[in-house]
Input
Amino acid sequence: MKKQSIADILQLKGEKQELTAYGWVRTSRDSKAFGFVEMNDGSVMSNLQVFVDKEVSAFKDIMPKLTTGTSLRVRGVLVESPGGKQNVELKASEIEILGSAPAEDYPLQKKRHSLEFLREIAHLRPRTNTFGAVTRVRNALSFAVHRFFQEQGFLYINTPIITGSDCEGAGEMFQVTTLPLDNVPKSDGKVDYSQDFFGKQTSLTVSGQLNGEIFACALGNIYTFGPTFRAEHSNTSRHLAEFWMIEPEMAFCDINGNMDTAEAFLKYIINYTLKHCAEDMDFFNKWVDKGRVDMLEKIVNSTFTRTSYTEAISILEKAPRDFEYPVKWGIDLQSEHEKYLTEEVFNGPVILSDYPRDIKAFYMKQNDDHKTVRAMDVLVPRIGEIIGGSERENDLHKLKARIKELGLREEDYWWYLELRKYGSVPHSGFGLGFERMVQFVTGMQNIRDVIPFPRAYQSADF
Ligand code: ATP
Ligand code: MN
Output
């Protein structure tokens, strides 16, 4: 027989059936004649209430042992609960303690712990309401990501995690090597990578995009969903050194089609999560960020504002307040600017396009003004940039000229250039930082609290 989760059990309508439940004690209450145990197994936010009748001789002295954190198997009859708060409760006939959790040192007590403290006990924090909810929402979001793209006929592809092309340049890279660090082989004073595992210098990927383009330029619409690594030294609430990124790439698609996909995609995965994680979302709405659910529902039913970088700069220049980073055409927008635009000017998501070429990557399609490229970023309230994307340069000569202009080496990009030499097509894509998405949906302030095991500068525990 399939083991019933507490989620399954709470769906039953109290039909007096006999069943077995498994889980961990969240709290317990003891009184003279009986006790109550709140039990949770992570399948849902709600606990299963277990009724313990102390007249039953086996239960006479059991209550003091059922402390927070204790794991249990409980057999009993599910009955309608007279208590009112819950519909059903389990009237225990048999209780087996699977693992005790000594109350004097179990780190998770009834009181609310700080998120900072919980980061230090990442092996136990999944047992809290907050991390249970984050984990279920993260799961729903990742399922929705696949569902959205699969419904649209996109192919899921896996791009390499170890990369030998140093042409990605989207951020600081982590090197991968088996060379002995205390005795690195050298020739002509430089590290001799021919002796390294791959016979060349390799790193962890910062983006699957360039490889993704290869498949889009053969199969049409593809997406990746994988880990990405950036040696970010910045200690911010929205940067990790290891994070997950979703990168669709579409052939025969220009920047407008790219924006349409990005907008439809964000709305779809938000909507899916609101529908399938209603109880968890209520929790975030109540305890983490009041009004979050309303804001998300509004976004699902809205049309995203689309405007240009240039227009955004002129709005920021006219803003009736000072920014820490002064605004002028050509700057990279800072999070304070992105927040001002989304929270105070447009009151919702904004898609900005046509950024200055000098602050964007070499592969973005150049506009005729010779000043801007067909980049598009999606900015959302509270987070700022959540998606970065562009139409790609598909003109071989323009791409070569840009590579030269930036002092990059053509031979490093030979295969990327050949995609433009043979059957080049207009194509576009974007990257969504998955953890920023989980932050946006849950309202969790710090990105370290929306990934099971965060890796950040000077921190890689668990
Ligand atoms: P930012 O300017 O915010 O550092 P970026 O412009 O460097 O981001 P892109 O290279 O455009 O980022 O990556 C695409 C998406 O990946 C971003 O829009 C963001 O959602 C996410 N992202 C980028 N860097 C990180 C990081 N260090 N940790 C978590 N998510 C990230
Ligand atoms: Mn970006």
